[in-house]
Amino acid sequence: MLFPADCLACGRALPCRQEGGVCASCWESLPWLPGYRPRRGPLQALLWGAEYEGTIRHLVHGFKFADMDYLGPALGGRMVSRLAPLIFAERPDLVVPVPLHFWRRYRRGYNQAERLARAIARRTLLPLDTAALRRRRAGRRQLGLSRRERLRSLAGCFVARPGRARGRTILLVDDVVTTGATLEACARALLAAGARRVIGCVLARTPRSR
Fold first, then answer.
1. Do 164 and 137 contact (CB within 8 A), yes or no?
2. Which single residue of 6, 76, 187, 192 has CA 20 to 30 Å from 156?
3. Using CB atoms within 10 A of its CB, is residue 1 exposed (0-12), middle (13-18) or buried (19+)?
4. Where are the extended beta strands (E) located within 65-157?
5. pLDDT, tens only, 116-166
6. pTM score, two decimals?
7. What is the pLDDT of residue 151?
8. Is the separation of the CB atoms in 49 and 34 below 8 Å?
9. What is the pLDDT confidence band of residue 209, given thresholds at 50, 70 and 90?
10. pLDDT of residue 204
C-alpha cells in the first residue's frame, strides 16, 4: 500500500486492484494471435494462443523463470477465452499438462504448464489429470538444440500411467512450443498407454524465424 507496484508490461503504477501484476489496459492490448495446425505423427494437431514475442514473451519469461506464478491463472484464462472454439472442435476428454522433472519442479516451486492446464480445465469444465504423465529423467536443456537433438534428448523421458489415458482424446498443455519435440515425446507416451488422440495446446508459439 505504501509502495505500489508497477505494471509488468508498461511500467506504470498499478491501482490497488489489479490482476497478475499487469494493468487492465495492458491485459486488453496483449497481441493474441490464436492458431491451429494439423500435424502428422503422434501429435495430431497444435493450438496456440499467441506468438512468443513482445509483451507475451516478457510475461511468459516472468511466469516461467522469475517466480511469477500468479501470472498463470491470468494468462491461462485469457488464453482459453481465445482458443475455446478450437479446443471444443477437437472434442477432448481430458486435459493433461506436460510434466516437469521432480527436481526442476522442486527448484521452481511449481509447474507452469500445470498452472495453465488448471485454468483451461476450469474454463472449459473438462477434467484435469496432473498425474497422467510423469517425467522420469531431466534430459538436456532444450534451448539451442536442433529438432533432431531435442528428439534424441527426450527419448524415453516421459511415461504415461496405465489406464489414465486409455480411449481418450487428450488436450496436452504446455507454455511455449518451438520445434514440438517435447509435445511429441509426451504424445508418444500417451498413445502407448492407449490414448485415442493427442492435441497440443500452448500459450505461445516461437516464430519460425527463430
1. no
2. 76
3. exposed
4. 94-97, 133-135
5. 999 999 999 999 999 999 998 766 555 656 666 666 667 778 999 888 899
6. 0.90
7. 63
8. yes
9. low
10. 97
